[in-house]
Amino acid sequence: MLKKLMAQMGVGASKVDLVLDKQHVELGEELKGFFRIEGGAVEQQINHISAELIIQFYYRTQLYTHTVATIPIASSFIIRPGESKELPFHYPLSARLPITRNGISYHIKTRLDIADGIDDSDRDSVHVCPPERFNSIVRALDMLRFREKLDSGKFNGSTQEFEFSPTGVFNEKVQEVEFEAALEQDGIRLLLEVDMFQFLGFGEKELRQQIFLRNEQLSDARALSHHLEAVIQEMTQNPQAYPASRYRSGLGGAIGSLVGDKVGIG
């Protein structure tokens, strides 16, 4: 009787722990692992187990916390004293989620709902990574001596923006290059923005165009750098052909747009 009373107060009660196969997972991959439930000092009725994938991000100066998904794991069952159960877990990550960057983080909160007792919970960090083909774009720009800015990857209220500063041949014409990216089966679609210096270096002129990089192009960073160099060169030589006003609505299906659609703060 005392053990049951103590378990109802949380002492000697059942516990839950999420064990992930890996904490670094690429967009489009599955989060995989299992839940380990350990019985306590007495038999207990478990009402259900659920897991929430939660993102925290800054927009401007405010911190937001949003539940991306609530994943039911198991319904009602009995756990006996000292018993151990393992339940498989998997959840596919949308290619429209933001990737983990400064100011953007993820964790999974697991809740064990215990009948007539204090619920147990568990928290596990998850690092959402870009796929290798996305990293090829970053490497190609680096070859052109565009350096990624410290705050690159920030959430703009609708999507995730990636920003680069020129340190090479473009640094007299270009103030900044940034893009939004949509991962597609055959490649990556970019909304590319080039910010040019205006007359005598005062102010800037925004140029935009949409380009599609095939998976074959993304497999060779050196060749990709030559292609991007030609694209940026063309935009700076013919700025009137690439007005930013043509793409005010952003890039549909871009990385980060899933949170933008759900939160609706942009």
From TrEMBL:
InterPro entries: Spore_0_M. PANTHER family: SPORULATION-CONTROL PROTEIN SPO0M (PTHR40053). This is Sporulation protein SpoOM. It comes from Tumebacillus avium.
